[in-house]
Amino acid sequence: VTLKECKKEEKADREFQKKFKFEGSINVLTQMMVDPAATEKKGGGKNLPLRRGEILDVIQFTNQEQILCRNSQRR
Questions:
Q1: Which of 25, 20, 35, 1 lies closest to 75 in space, CA to CA?
Q2: How far is it, in rounded angstroms, from Cα 29 to Cα 10?
Q3: What b-and-e string marks burial along 11-39, b requiring 16 or more CB atoms within 10 Å of the CB?
Q4: How many angstroms separate the CA atoms of 36 and 46, rounded?
Q5: Where are the domains of the chain?
Q6: Where does the sequence pass through the membrane (predicted)?
Q7: Interior CA angle at 42 toward 36 and 43, to 5°?
Q8: N or C terminus: which one in the chain shows less Cβ crowding within 10 Å?
Q9: How far, in Å, CA of 3 to CA of 61, rounded?
């Protein structure tokens, strides 16, 4: 990982924490894959755009219907 990539990841993490009012360090609990048969959805506001088969990092289980995740682009 180059210095430029490291700084970019740190910036993305800070933006994530600010957007979701997330305090403390970001720890990935597990990874999940979006159902390959699911319909793709555009993101908006605080919702992540979904792509079939995409691997997501699970940060926090918020309730039974929503999970706080980030994609490979750390968004």
A1: 20
A2: 19
A3: eeeeebeeeeeeeeebeeeeeeebeeeee
A4: 22
A5: 3-70
A6: none
A7: 110
A8: N
A9: 32
Whether 26 and 13 have beta carbons less than 8 Å apart is answered as yes
Tell me whether residue 48 is exposed, middle or buried, using C-beta atoms within 10 angstroms of its C-beta: 0 to 12, 13 to 18, 19 or more: middle
**Single-letter code of the amino acid located at 31:** Q
pTM score of the predicted model: 0.68
pLDDT digits (tens, 9 = 90+) for 28-45: 899 999 888 888 777 777
Residue recorded with tokens 């390959």 = 36
Give the up-direction half-sphere exposure of residue 45: CA atoms within 13 A in the CB hemisphere. 0
| Pairing of the two strands 67-70 and 55-61 | antiparallel
